[in-house]
Amino acid sequence: MTPSVLPLGDPAPADGVLPAQAAIGAADRKFSLYVHIPFCAVRCGYCDFNTYTATELGGGASQDAYAETAVREVEFAAQAMSASGLPKRKLSTVFFGGGTPTLLAAGDLTRILAAAVARWGLEDGAEVTTEANPDSVTRESLQQLFDGGFTRVSFGMQSAIPHVLKVLDRTHNPERVPQAVAWAREVGLRVSVDLIYGTPGESFADWETSVRTALSYEPDHISAYSLIVEEGTKLAAQIRRGQVPNIDDDDHAAKYELADRLFQEAGLSWYEVSNWSRTPQDACQHNLAYWRGDDWWGIGPGAHSHVGGVRWWNVKHPTAYANRLDKGESPAAGRETLDAQTRELERIMLVSRLSEGLAVDTLSPTARKAIAGLIAQELVDPLKVFAGTLVLTLKGRLLGDAVTRALLD
Amino acid sequence: MSPMARTAPVPAATDPAIIRNFCIIAHIDHGKSTLADRMLQLTGVVQQRDMKAQYLDRMDIERERGITIKSQAVRIPWEVDGTSYCLNMIDTPGHVDFTYEVSRSLAACEGAILLVDAAQGIEAQTLANLYLAMENNLTIIPVLNKIDLPAAQPEKYAAELANLIGGKPEDVLMVSGKTGVGVEELLDQIVRDLPAPQGDPNAPARAMIFDSVYDTYRGVVTYVRVIDGSLSPREKIQMMSTRATHELLEIGVSSPEPKPSKGLGVGEVGYLITGVKDVRLSKVGDTVTTFHKPATEALAGYHDAKPMVFSGLYPLDGTDYPVLRDALEKLMLNDAALVYEPETSAALGFGFRVGFLGLLHLEITRERLEREHNLDLISTAPNVEYEVTLEDKKVVHVTNPSEYPTGKIAEVREPMVAATILAPTEFVGAIMELCQTRRGILGGMDYLSEDRVEIRYRLPLAEIVFDFFDILKSKTRGYGSLDWKADGDQVADLVKVDIMLQGEQVDAFSAITHRDKSYAYGVMMTGKLRELIPRQQFEVPIQAAIGARIIARENIRAIRKDVLAKCYGGDISRKRKLLEKQKEGKKRMKMVGRVEVPQEAFIAALSSEEPVKDKSKK
User: Fold this and answer.
1) Closest residue in A to B536 (Cα–Cα)
2) Are A153 and A185 in contact (CB under 8 A)?
3) Which of A193, B109, B120, B139 is the most exposed place for a label (fewest CB within 10 A)?
4) pLDDT over threshold 50, residue B79
């Protein structure tokens, strides 16, 4: 999941060595790995991720050679981290995202994973997830993934409604989803499904059908995102030309409330603004690492990394990416070293999204002053505040950015 | 064809018989400055290499807008039949807001060149100034400019001019300021046709001030035309309106750079420097005499410039208030018409209520403040001065809607204008309709030529200060032109409309309107604000009210969603920057009660539907 627009930052050195601050306290932080697979069979109209269709690329960036290139960055990462004085840490979680990771042969994915595990090792019971398109898996390929060390698969279901899928340019047949979920279960993978709500033309009833359909597969985990119209996408152009109605935040809010209710009724609880799990153990540990501010290295073109308050991102184009690694250079395009104030801002922005909440005693006096107002506006749960944590109410989840801003002032 | 004068007549020793004082009456863009430049070049007072386009328009804003705000006077030599003449060209301001200044410039002349674009014909303001010149008994030389243009229709417009001033179309001179065609003939004709100035050289000195400019290095430079007697350096002079006396530090003529002289005699035009620092001490229209041998009677026609249009000026950033105050103080030194006093707005903070001669004056002042002093300003909707008589006979003058009295009102009087509109005949219906909706009363209508009419209306000033000119332009496809002058006042059924956000009155949006239009204003403003104010976490009612009576209402629904759905590893930097930006943006919000209103909403709500830019252009 790497957005296409890279931030502006400082230049990153070719040897990939990190500023000194990255190593401070690293032994106490978990370490995760993200692997970006920049391929899709078709580019979806709403998607602004850094992804390419199979025929667009050649050389080390081609689909066939990609696993080898990614393994090269794994090696580079291990070296750069040790050169930066970071201790060797076992992988706490691994996540393959895209694009469509399952467009690569299962063997390619397990090969990259094996190379990473060989470098760093894997914590016991570590979560290893791949995203998948329901159309691009078979029972066999899922079996192969499981055998290669994957523990979890996240299916991009998006909607159960054909006309909604069409607006999204999703090519899968909705009927493939239950089959794919069943196969994943059979081979021993835990299952998550992704849903998108608020697509132009999606009725309230359409959304309810999608939610109920997703629940009928009894997944361990569901992510539900409101559709975001990103600049530069086909969908944005269609809306601008008036071919497709614009999205409506009120519609999004109502659909969120409905989904939250139905998920709860089905026994799933929210643990992040857009994520629900059957048990706390079913929460996506990898994504929690992002929100908790742990360290991770992102492999692949356009992938973002974070180690100890240093964020960097790789060059976007797979060919440029492959060329850098061929020369033994860091594929980073830019980076930023966050000061204490900025890290605190990020912590508030990210942890406030979680049901585990922000510990009140970690907040600054000014931030604490804002809490009474947030309670009055019914944005945070008063009982939880008395117990020492700031946790969003349902209304607060929908106005999460406003809560963050209030705590920053 | 005349040669360039070989010897120029010397100031202070010039026989009035060889002096010709003239000005050019022209509409903006009809090429006055270009023609003046050509004259300077032809007569040799400005060398080719020093020539910048429109030499006489000194301020950047003047050059950019192509208009003259402050007039200048230039002494130029010209030889006809072996005699060297002294021509004084007095460049007049070209806009409706500066009618008084124009009238004083005209009073300094014996003749005027009526300069009209051969592709456009005469415009309303030019016509108004022409009438002014004719009332002053000036000799008029009609000239069509830009005859080199492919779209020029010299025959048609020559007939129009001849018709207006009562001559023959053949007598209209054809020139092109751009190519220089006809300019020498024009100079010759000025010498031949214009009367020489007449005055008594032995009488006590009387000189009329037709312009007064503040110069950082020299203080106030006063431009005068000597009527009687003479002025000499080192003499003590006296302003007849105030009886204030000053030492004459320097006296001279512009040609066009200032050149000190031994004095100025009857009929001569030049400048005076006394070391005063405020143009208010040297007012346009006032008479200058000498302290030791003072004249008994001042020249006629002097009066104080009276502001007609008022607007609140506020710095966008409240900490800029002292900068704005200093800037206004400075500007005032150079602009006798500018008046201001501090005011406070609950919504906009500290600012000033500033009085202007008209809308262009407002725009130019605002632009100069912003540009020359690096300020960002909000100006409230312009309004006029109302005279409110309460039932207890107390009279209140209201220049700001928020000062409108709340007590029992016996009568409200509003200022009126006499407006002249020139347009092609096909637009008469549209113009009458527009004027009617603006509560105008038709005063008369005349044909200038077969297809152009002059329409006269009496209108409330308040009805034309906002967007009237823009609408007139669009209704006449750009062909209509407007001129107005103050014309007394009238009793009107006026009310104050207040705008409230969540029950809190926002003073910046209050307006005084005619009762019949109050509802429309309320609907318009509440609707505009609904679009401009972002949704808050609570519902925000927007109401328009007259007193306690609500006349319009809109609602901004509470925002229900304000959160980014996806926030993963690659989104964090972007998302953080967005939040930092929003945090910055919050600083630019004005709080009205609990409601956060962006600055932009104030600016957009206070501007007219379409941007009021380019009002100065025809």
Assistant:
1) A402
2) no
3) B139
4) yes
